[in-house]
Amino acid sequence: MLDRRELEALKVKLVYCQQATVVQGHAFTTGTIKRRSFERVLPNTLVEYSKKDGIGCDMPEANAKAQGKFVADEHLDEHGTAFNLKDRGLVVISSCGHAGIVNTVQQAIEASGVSKVHAVLGGFHLFPAPDDYLVRTVNELKALNPDVVIPLHCSGPGFVTAMRELLGDRLVTSTTGTEFQFGA
Q: How many CB atoms lie within 10 A of CB 96?
């Protein structure tokens, strides 16, 4: 668990980024990802929106709605990370994609003002998704026209199959330890 007291003792500076924020002069976080597409958070975990003894998630408005009870985790605080590669477009990285990979890419486009998408990679949290949902996700990604899509860890074999069938020329698969280099 994340214990903020331990972080404070180590003098780790926490930066909360509700809005898109430039990181180290070149990367940027999407900020809070708007839920604007068909995507929904697929079944996962429960969360209690409170903080006790320095541990937990302190989101008073979410806790008020949950009335102090454990509720489905909507991953309201999930962000994506992106880079704008000169002459290539955005590289959008999803952590686990609970907010939806399409929503994440759309948020990166909105935050940056760059409409060209070079690469989409990361976990897409589609392992539990039914086939029709996977096909719709691939079709929505196709409309965003990325050069490559690199599904990682929690994306699931069904997503890889749907990508192969509908957008196979842009699918890049990987295994643990694979390194990707993007740049001029």
A: 16
Amino acid at 44: N
Q: Is 118 helix (H, G, I), strand (E, B) or coil?
A: strand
Over residues 66-90, the pLDDT tens digits come to: 677 777 777 777 889 999 998 999 9
The structure tokens listed for 121 are: 């990679």
- Which tokens hold the place of 106? 């759309």
CA separation for the pair 74, 72 (Å, rounded): 6
Q: For residue 172, which amino acid is it?
A: V
The tokens describing 22, both together, are: 């430039």
Instruction: Kindly state the tokens that stand for 60.
Output: 């008073």
Task: Write the DSSP assignment of 23-77 as a string of letters.
Answer: ETTTEEE--SPP--SS--PPS--EE---EETTEE---HHHHHHHTTS-EE---TT
State the DSSP code for 98: T
Reply yes or no on whether the pLDDT at 97 is more than 80: yes
